[in-house]
Please model this.
Amino acid sequence: MNTEITAFDKLREECMLCQKCELAKTRTNVVFGVGNPKANVLFIGEGPGENEDLQGVPFVGRGGQLLDKMLDAVDLSRKENIYIANIVKCRPPKNRDPQPEEQESCINWLRAQTKLIAPKIIVCLGRISAQKLIKQDFRVTVEHGMWFEKGGILFMGTFHPAALLRNPNNKPAAMEDFLKLRDKINEICPETYTESGLR
Ligand code: URA
Model:
């Protein structure tokens, strides 16, 4: 059994105690992230909803089930070759958008996670994530599926799974984005598919 305590484990422990913003007062659990911390591909959502807050795991509600299906279609899995996190780690009350100040208070946890994971590709799920990480005026309906290079990492924004549940008309476009993602993985980090995502 591997009992080594990694820098990633230490970061998680610290994050679990976070009191940097008001969301700490109303959360049940901090939702740090899930997946393989050595993954080449990092998915970033907006923030935990009710189920995620209760379970302490990202994307476990209906949106999460849809996300897992789309991932499976391109041979990606949170159990093996990707990591999933959010812009904010604690649930905003009544699932409102996380405020800019809350995003700013929380972003250093995500920066630290990103540094340790060192992904080649980041996929932003939805507007909040894409506007925070790609560009402030990102428009999902117009710019989904496009690649943006920043600091040696390739970023793509796509539809948020919850938005796809509300508007299933966008599902084919979202699936095309996932196929583009598979092509890019095969081009720049094919080991994602051959070694269980381990570098
Ligand atoms: N929506 C998100 O953006 N993230 C989650 O973890 C769950 C729902």
